[in-house]
Amino acid sequence: AQSVSQHNHHVILSEAASLELGCNYSYGGTVNLFWYVQYPGQHLQLLLKYFSGDPLVKGIKGFEAEFIKSKFSFNLRKPSVQWSDTAEYFCAEKAAGNKLTFGGGTRVLVKP
Amino acid sequence: NAGVTQTPKFRILKIGQSMTLQCTQDMNHNYMYWYRQDPGMGLKLIYYSVGAGITDKGEVPNGYNVSRSTTEDFPLRLELAAPSQTSVYFCASRGQTQETQYFGPGTRLLVL
Predict the structure, then answer these.
(1) Mean pLDDT, to the nearest integer, of B83-88?
(2) What gap in Å lies between CA A74 and CA A65, rounded to an integer?
(3) Which of A25, B22, B37, B103 has its CA 20 to 30 A from that of A101?
């Protein structure tokens, strides 16, 4: 069965610090990979996605992610976080079929 | 264009009661999904549908039922509510040629 692992459940950092959230997926074939964000009290929104091509993907709000096939990883990064980046972040993969498999999520708290 | 809407936003049920969570999308999307979100567990797929009249089980379907009589609506039914069904429920949809899922605002359910 497909699985997605997010290694950090909680991350606390200060404004202007750099952020990197780990994500590993299990499917060995062609995958579509996503990062979704859920701001407090809101629904999930797409941050960025990777289907093919350049393994460095840029998304909204200054986020980027790098697809490394040899490591089965799709880590999310932001060079300098803001208080408004406080949210829960979910990595997801779509392998065969019409379904997404989500990781457990990482809660990020940015202290002002 | 409202996107994906869900009602109610919050509900308290007693054990053994039944209820229907409503989900409607106005984007003419073929695919619709129901997830539940539990702390630290990410999102788990309950049921999904690839079009009107077609539904299929996801990862955690026990205790739930769905129907898809129209393209727009995808209600989720709880017949005998149990405390284990306390969760936040999200509905999502996507188009035939899209991979990105669009999420509703969620329904928070508490079963006591």
Answers:
(1) 95
(2) 6
(3) B22
The reported pLDDT for the residue numbered B22 is: 98
Q: Cβ–Cβ contacts within 10 Å for residue B44, how many?
A: 16
Q: Do A44 and B103 touch (CB under 8 A)?
A: yes
- What is the CB neighbour count within 10 angstroms for residue B87? 21
Per-residue pLDDT for A39 more than 80? yes
Indicate if the pLDDT at residue B84 is higher than 80: yes
Distance from CA of A51 to the nearest CA of B (A): 9
Q: What is the dihedral of CA A42, A92, B40, B60, to 10 degrees?
A: 100
**Taking CB atoms and an 8 Å limit, are A42 and B105 in contact across chains?**
yes
Mutation target vs B (from A32, A36, A44, A45; most B CBs, 10 A cutoff): A44
Average pLDDT over residues A97-108: 88
